[in-house]
């Protein structure tokens, strides 16, 4: 018969730990928890983790305010006390373990120190360096790079450009650019940052 | 019987029965432990975590609704730790609640509102969530608004326990909602519209459909009374405002589901203010009924009754109160001087079964035998008994169903025997004697040649092992069933189809002269019909008096119509099928000029010149004890009125002149 795959809290934790940014990591975990092992039997866990996911998402997207941190801490504290089973208590523990105040606050201020949260970074093509080879255009799975490959002996070509609305910040374009014309920048200051 | 233990709650020492949970224990000390998902009288599930308390010497908090008290326990209900959890939970729930207390019907009795107030949470500190679920208001009884739902699951558990099992969670966690199978509207599900879920809902998610802007709880005058629609005589609480009934709830304490009422009891009250109601006396003038005064109507009635005396027949429903029945029997014997008095109870019950049924308590019965009764919540045939039995079964009691035909409750039964009921009792008796029950010579002789079937053998095993067994049977089977109580301590209850059949019989309304059926088809010169008797065609009599609350078919053909008060407008008692006297209190004043039956009887006697002096002391004790005697194992003949048909025709006016009509039409439309 149909075998129901049960995802365990530990599995999600393991997957989440591969993610460097603690905000993104917590969000990934919470998302996995809510769509998998969360049973919904007790209020603090089912409602608390749902709220935590919203808050983490807000932080990741740069729309959260200072209070979000306090709220997440409160959710974790209360879930640890009041959850019915170990799953809820473990979740609370993970949140607390990863709740690095400094990093979270930086996010709220508009900076992801790991340069992974997409709301805080932008990939840009330096026009002067672009050779219009079209490799990045080919590599981009999302069609976020706009431009036309240069053909020899013809003029009027514009350098390639990245459409920020479509770009998912996957970073594939950087890897293929032979001219080193693509850089990662801070979304706020538009200054280049190291990868 | 039950032991008590001593626990200390917030420094207060209380003695509570062993096995009670902490919430109930605290309540007996006057301390309220907040809770959202707990339903009084049901097993706790510990979902909302509002009832967390801390025990001295223990690090982790305890759950109030699922923890049983232990001797010497010391519990603190208001520590910082648990109060924070409560605030947290309320805060989270408020983040997805509409927060429109100012226009909410449940304001004042809403549990969420209460705790938000107690903890001073004006609005949620968390992200606002809105789901915008559609409201289910396609039926005229129950409105479901999932936006208000706090997902406590009380309705789900109540519905499941009473065996209807219509509601369940769809999804899990915050995005889930309470829904019927396939998320269909209630009328497309197996819902019986009993409204138990409405009583269970702590917020505004489940509500009587037309309640909005008809007053909140604090506007109402609450009156505990009894519903007289069928044999179960359920406890109800009527809420009235400006002398009209607004709603009816089950008669259990707030938040408890120990008592069930059906759609008829909950929604049928509207008929009392519909246009079919009779509010003034009427007499026939030139072949048409015309309104008249009480004085005139009484004079006409008195004159006729005086003349006909012994040729008078009085028929009544058994849905009248003890006091009414008592005065009626005096009126018949002392004033009118006729022996022809009978009630509709004689259609399905003999005097023995009504007088000598035992008193029982469904909740404490562990083996239930249901014989000859096809109870049904869907068809509303003794629905409260059906719900009560199913509830007992879901709490671990065993059910044995014996019926000559198929029954609706059979799937809930441990043993279902389809056979002749009387013969089955003979088999049960024989099997019980083989298991070391007290021997009785007469029974032994009667069952000597009986072959015991395998099922009955198993049933006997269950009955023999029972701590407290009860047989609920149709009145015609009472004598056969009572033989079992000669062998073993078993309670035998004949279940009548009308609320006060037992009381009416005890008060003296038994067949002495002509029977109900004889009178209902003529055979007397003056017929005095009391209540909504199930007769539609005027029998061949010289004069017909109809004393009724409603303009029934019979009343339309009567010579005089005397307007009677409904049960919600009467004071008195009834003797329920479980053998207990229940009080009825006037919820509203009798409509128009109508009067309670007993006042009309007294008025008639005064007009006739020999007033009845009714005194409570004279009323016979309702519980005549009687030693069981052996009777043959056979079904009593002539008592074959069908429960469903009889209950339906007795309640015809209520069923067809209130919201309940919708049920009938919806069923016909399918």
Brief synopsis:
With 195 residues, chain A is mostly helical. In chain A, 46% of the residues lie in helices and 8% in strands. In chain A, a hairpin with a 5-residue loop joins β4 (182-186) and β5.
List its salient traits.
heterodimer; A: 195 residues; mainly alpha; de novo design (two linked rop proteins); Alpha-Beta Plaits; 3-stranded antiparallel beta sheet; two-stranded antiparallel sheet; 8 helices; B: 670 residues; Ubiquitin-like (UB roll); 7-stranded mixed beta sheet; 22 helices; 17% strand; globular
Question: What does this molecule look like?
Answer:
The complex is a heterodimer of chains A (195) and B (670). Chain A has 195 residues and is mainly alpha-helical. Chain A is built from eight helices and five strands. In chain A, helix 4 (67-82) packs antiparallel against helix 5 (86-98). The longest helix of chain A has 18 residues, at 43-60. Chain A is elongated. Chain A starts with 8 loop residues before the first helix and ends with a strand. In chain A, 37% of the residues are buried. With 670 residues, chain B is α/β, with parallel strands linked by helices. Chain B folds into four domains: 4-94, Ubiquitin-like (UB roll); 102-273, Alpha-Beta Plaits; 282-349 and 500-618, Rossmann fold; 352-495, Dimethylsulfoxide Reductase, domain 2, CATH 3.40.228. Chain B is built from 22 helices and 26 strands. In chain B, strand 25 (572-575) and strand 26 (581-584) form a beta hairpin. In chain B, helix 7 (294-308) packs across helix 19 (597-607), helix 8 runs parallel beside helix 19 (597-607) and helix 11 (421-433) crosses helix 13. Chains A and B meet through helix 3 and helix 4 of A and helix 2 of B.
């Amino acid at each position: 018969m149909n075998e129901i795959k049960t995802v365990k809290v530990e599995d999600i934790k393991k997957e989440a730990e591969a993610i460097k940014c603690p905000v993104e990591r917590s969000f990934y975990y919470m998302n996995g928890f809510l769509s998998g092992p969360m049973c919904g039997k007790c209020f603090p866990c089912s409602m608390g983790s749902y709220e935590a996911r919203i808050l983490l998402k807000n932080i990741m997207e740069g729309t959260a305010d200072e209070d979000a941190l306090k709220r997440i801490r409160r959710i974790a504290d209360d879930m640890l006390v009041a959850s019915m089973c170990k799953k809820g208590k473990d979740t609370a523990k993970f949140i607390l373990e990863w709740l690095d105040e400094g990093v979270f606050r930086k996010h709220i201020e508009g900076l992801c120190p790991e340069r992974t949260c997409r709301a805080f970074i932008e990939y840009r093509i330096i026009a002067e360096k672009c050779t219009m080879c079209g490799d990045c255009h080919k590599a981009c799975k999302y069609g976020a790079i706009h431009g036309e490959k240069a053909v020899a002996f013809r003029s009027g070509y514009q350098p390639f450009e990245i459409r920020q609305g479509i770009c998912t910040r996957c970073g594939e374009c950087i890897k293929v650019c032979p001219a080193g014309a693509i850089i990662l920048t801070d979304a706020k200051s538009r200054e280049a940052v190291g990868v | 019987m039950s032991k008590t233990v001593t626990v200390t709650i917030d420094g207060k020492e209380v003695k509570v029965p062993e096995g009670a949970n902490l919430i109930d224990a605290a309540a007996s000390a006057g301390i309220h432990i907040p809770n959202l998902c707990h339903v009084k009288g049901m097993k706790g599930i510990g979902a909302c975590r509002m009832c967390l308390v801390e025990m001295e010497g223990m690090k982790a908090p305890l759950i109030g609704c699922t923890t049983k008290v232990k001797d010497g326990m010391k519990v603190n209900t208001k520590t910082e730790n648990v109060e924070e959890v409560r605030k947290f939970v309320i805060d989270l729930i408020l983040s997805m609640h509409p927060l429109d207390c100012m226009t909410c019907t449940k304001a004042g009795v809403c549990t969420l509102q209460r705790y938000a107030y107690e903890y001073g949470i004006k609005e949620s500190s968390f992200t606002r969530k809105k789901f915008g679920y559609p409201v289910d208001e396609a039926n005229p009884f129950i409105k479901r608004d999932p936006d208000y739902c706090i997902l406590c699951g009380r309705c789900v558990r109540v519905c499941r326990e009473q065996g209807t099992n219509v509601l369940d969670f769809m999804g899990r966690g915050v995005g889930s909602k309470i829904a019927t199978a396939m998320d269909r509207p209630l009328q497309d599900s197996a819902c019986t519209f009993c409204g138990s879920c409405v009583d269970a809902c702590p917020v505004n998610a489940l509500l009587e459909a037309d309640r909005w802007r008809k007053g909140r709880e604090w506007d109402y005058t609450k009156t505990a009374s009894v519903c007289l629609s069928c044999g179960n005589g359920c406890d109800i609480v009527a809420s009235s405002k400006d002398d009209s009934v607004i709603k009816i709830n089950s008669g259990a304490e707030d938040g408890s589901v120990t008592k069930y009422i059906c759609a008829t009891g909950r929604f049928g009250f509207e008929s009392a203010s519909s246009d079919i109601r009779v509010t003034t006396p009427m007499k026939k003038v030139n072949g048409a009924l015309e309104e008249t005064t009480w004085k005139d109507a009484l004079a006409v009635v008195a004159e006729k009754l005086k003349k006909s005396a012994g040729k008078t027949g009085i028929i009544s429903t058994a849905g009248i109160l003890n006091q009414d029945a008592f005065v009626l029997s005096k009126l018949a014997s002392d004033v009118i001087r006729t022996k022809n008095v009978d009630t509709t109870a004689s259609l399905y019950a003999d005097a023995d079964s009504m007088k000598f049924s035992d008193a029982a308590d469904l909740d404490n019965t562990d083996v239930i035998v249901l014989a000859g009764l096809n109870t049904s919540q869907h068809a509303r045939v003794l629905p409260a008994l059906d719900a009560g039995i199913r509830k007992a079964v879901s709490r671990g009691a065993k059910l044995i169903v014996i019926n000559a035909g198929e029954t609706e409750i059979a799937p809930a039964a441990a043993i279902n025997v389809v056979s002749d009921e009387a013969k089955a009792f003979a088999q049960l008796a024989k099997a019980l004697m083989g298991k070391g029950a007290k021997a009785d010579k007469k029974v032994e002789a009667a069952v000597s040649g009986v072959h015991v079937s395998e099922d009955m053998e198993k049933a006997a095993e269950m009955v023999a092992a029972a701590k407290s067994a009860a047989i609920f049977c149709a009145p015609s089977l009472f004598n056969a069933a009572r033989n079992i109580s000669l062998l073993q301590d078993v309670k035998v209850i004949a279940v009548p189809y009308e609320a006060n059949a037992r009381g009416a019989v005890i008060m003296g309304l038994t067949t002495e002269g002509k029977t109900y059926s004889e009178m209902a088809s003529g055979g007397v010169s003056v017929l005095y019909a009391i209540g909504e008797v199930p007769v539609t065609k005027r029998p061949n009599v010289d004069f017909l008096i109809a004393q009724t609350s409603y303009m029934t078919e019979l009343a339309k053909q009567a010579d005089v119509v005397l307007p009677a008060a409904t049960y919600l407008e009467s004071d008195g008692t009834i003797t329920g099928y479980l053998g207990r006297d229940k009080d009825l209190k006037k919820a509203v004043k009798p409509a128009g000029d109508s009067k309670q039956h007993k006042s009309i009887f007294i008025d008639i006697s005064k007009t006739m010149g020999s007033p009845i002096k009714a005194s409570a002391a004279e009323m016979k004790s309702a519980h005549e004890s009687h030693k069981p005697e052996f009777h043959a194992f056979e079904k009593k003949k002539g008592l074959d009125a069908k429960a469903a048909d009889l209950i339906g025709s007795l309640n015809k006016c209520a069923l067809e002149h209130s919201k309940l009509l919708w049920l009938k039409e919806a069923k016909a439309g399918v």
